[in-house]
Amino acid sequence: MPTINKNFLKLQSNYLFSDIAKKVAAYKEENPSADIISLGIGDVTRPLIPACIEAMHKAVDEMANADTFRGYPPEQGYDFLLEAIVKNDYLDRGVELDKSEVFVSDGAKCDCGNIGDIFGTDNVVAVCDPVYPVYVDTNVMAGRAGEFNGGKWSKIVYMPSTKENGFFPDFPKEHADMIYLCFPNNPSGQGATRQQLQKWVDFALRENSVILYDSAYEAYITDGDMPHTIYEIEGAKKCCIEFRSFSKTAGFTGTRCAYCVIPKELTVEGTSLNSLWARRQATKFNGVSYITQRGAEAIYTEQGKKEIKELIAYYQANAKVIYEGLKEAGFKVSGAVNSPYIWLEVPQGMTSWDFFDVLLRQANVVGTPGSGFGPAGEGYFRLTAFGSAERTKQAVERIVKVFKS
Ligand code: PLP
Q: Distance from the CA of 40 to the center of ligand 1, in angstroms?
């Protein structure tokens, strides 16, 4: 008789964003004329930049001709994209990587989830709290999480990131083998300084841990001295895997392209994680389409870089509007500076979901309750800068109107 992976049955049945969608749908049914603005889900709204579009059109034409047609792509990525990544994202920041240390993929979400394949199921996992839910749920599926009691998984080590520690986690008291870090952070919007990251890398080396460093929001870093890659930190190549994505950098959420870096120096039990991951990808992944990779490559051209800068500046301007508007309305706000996320403390006496309801009903604005990202997110709320400038401004005006009094 076949059996199932029972770990799937342990997963919390309701996913945060479907809960939100249900609440919004119910409200709309009661109030069909309500003009709802969503600053909730972290999806972008601006179109792909012209440099990418042009490159992708050209690639489509190549696919239409037998002489230039391409079949299966190399699982690890085409050389033209790997070389552009190595040069622009690393060498230009003083980090030397070989292109065999970079793996192009169809998303950082998939990479963050799939990476668990190459680690033993008995590894102890540590996550920040609140956290991007993918790190936790994929470890539940793999059997590393234990049981869910009182809002927490028994075998997962939680590292609270609250206002008391400046939304930057302290080292866990227990030993953890796999430590997920994400900076600039989703959901808090907090960036990480060089000194903070150096302490984490030193800790991981001392503890013999692997840091899984999610840098999906790297493009939003504005602080001059903030590292743009974990490999700017001494020792990181020996203990860190880095995940990067074109989703929020270049509007690729629907186009799908990302990459992860596993340096050759990174070994566990004497085995190279790079070669394990190469083997895993060669077996389970068939590469990203030629058209998409040509689009991603165009981000690194002079024209592409200029257009990306403008795109990010658009969202950063939205972040500033939200941040300043909420401050004016008396909220305690953080994030926004190195991130498209704004993290706010909900008014005293309210839970994150209470605030969600008030915002939906009184301002017709949708955001994300902090408690959906983990127990330490209770009392907080996330807004995103990915809407249109006009709607973002409108949403903020409504929030200010409701709460300023
Ligand atoms: N990592 C973090 C922290 C995210 O917030 C997201 C998307 O919201 C992702 C990864 C997913 O990236 P991708 O679109 O490349 O799968």
A: 14
